[in-house]
Amino acid sequence: MSHLDNIPSTPGKHKPDKAFRFHSSAASSSLSKLTLYSTLFLSILLIFLLLLSSPSSPPSPRRHLSTGSHHTPLSLSHKLIRKSARPRSTTGHTVLVTGAAGFVGTHVSLSLQRRGDGVLGLDNFNHYYDPTLKRARQKILEKAGVFIVEGDINDKGLLQQLFDAVLFTHVMHLAAQAGVRYAMQNPGSYVHSNIAGFVNLLEVSKSANPQPAIIWASSSSVYGLNSRVPFSEKDRTDQPASLYAATKKAGEEIAHTYNHIYGLSITGLRFFTVYGPWGRPDMAYFFFTKDIMKGKTITVYESPDKGSVARDFTYIDDIVKGCLGALDTAKKSTGSGGKKRGPAQLRIFNLGNTSPVPVSRLVSILEKILKVKAKKKVVPLPRNGDVEFTHANITLAMTELGYKPTTDLEAGLKKFVRWYLSFYSGSKKKSSW
Question: Where do the record's region annotations for Disordered lie (predicted)?
Answer without folding.
Answer: 59-90
